[in-house]
Amino acid sequence: MKIGDIEFPKNPVFLAPMEDVTDIGFRLLCKRFGADMVYTEFISSDALIRDIKKTKRKIIFSEEERPIGIQIYGSDPDTMVEAAKICEDANPDLIDINFGCPVRKIAGKGAGSGMMRTPEVMLEITERVVKAVNKPVSVKTRLGWDDDSKIIVPLAEQLQDCGIVALTIHGRTRSQMYKGKADWSLIRKVKNNPRMRIPIIGNGDVNSVEECKQRFDETGVDAVMIGRGSIGRPWFFRELKHYLQTGEHLPEESFEWYLDILKQQVMGSVERLDEFRGILHTRRHLAATPLFKGIPDFRETRIAMLRADTLDELLAILDEIPYKFGLAAYA
Questions:
Q1: Annotated catalytic residue: which of 87, 101, 162, 212?
Q2: CA of 207: how far to CAs of 172, 204, 260, 303, in Å?
Q3: Are residues 207 and 293 in the same domain?
Q4: Is the separation of the CB atoms in 209 and 239 below 8 Å?
Q5: b/e code 93-118 from CB counts within 10 Å (16+ = b)
Q6: pLDDT tens figures, 228-284
Q7: For residue range 145-180, what is the model confidence (pLDDT) as tens digits?
Q8: In this predicted structure, what is the pLDDT of residue 330?
């Protein structure tokens, strides 16, 4: 499978762009564990062209992450074109346009999945960005605004006609946010449309290796994008790749092995940002990781872990967990 000039192995799995999640440290870990493509956090085109430091930092990536896409969002065509040119100067492998984010502060202003209510503007932005840059351009979007306006099947053809090289579809409407179950039937319909020539990437509710394989088998998508299922679990890509290639589950590692990965993530984030922001950025991963789920009487430790504001304090809490809860391989 190819996206532009980028070649991928059979059944590739991608890391979804997620705000306050897919920073460079997390992307590098996911890449190390087998993610075939990673994306930056989504980036405001308005903030980017205004040269906001925090936003400019988001387009920084390392060569080890390739292939990587920079994702931008916005509602004004001129601003999106200017932002895309700035992203092109950073030299990613592709530029991705976010027409899928459902949060109110973005969709409510007409950007992200808010574009589902103004598809004509969506198409104008896409066409103009494609023409303005030499990098391949892809799009990520949803099924529609709500259950009464699931427009993705005809919209996919129109986006393809704008010149994009790939289309990612999240199997929910904007109104659903992240509630209910992702509907992959329309993703399958887009993929099986004989008029579609570009790769179709499916996204939504892939939280196990079995679900990932099922999505490939039932829909025929060219790639599966993993979002929330990877938070606090960068090793998930290693498990996915093994299962997709062999049909067997990868043997589990020790508790300390997984914990060490999370510690590496914390320390890497602190090193690249600073102590305060690095810890803050990894709290969501520590709160969501399945590693701590089901541990009896873990509540107080969880609270202390998420309140720790120095690296030494946080690492001390993490180091104590295997022994405090009898999870150490060699007690």
A1: 101
A2: 16, 9, 22, 25
A3: no
A4: yes
A5: bbbbbbbbbbeeebbeeebbbbbbee
A6: 999 999 999 999 999 999 999 999 999 999 999 999 999 999 988 889 989 998 999
A7: 999 999 999 999 999 999 999 999 999 999 998 998
A8: 55
Residue closest to 302 by CA, chosen among 291, 311, 278, 312: 291
Same domain, 192 and 290: no
Handedness of CA 196, 210, 150, 68 (dihedral sign): negative
What tokens does 31 get?
A: 């890449």
How distant is the alpha carbon of residue 62 from its chain centre?
17
What one-letter code names the amino acid at 246?
A: T
Domain end residue (candidates: 246, 266, 300):
246
Give the model's pLDDT for residue 73: 97
* Of 246, 267, 288, the domain-final residue: 246
162 is catalytic: no
Average pLDDT, the chain: 95
* 166 within some domain: yes
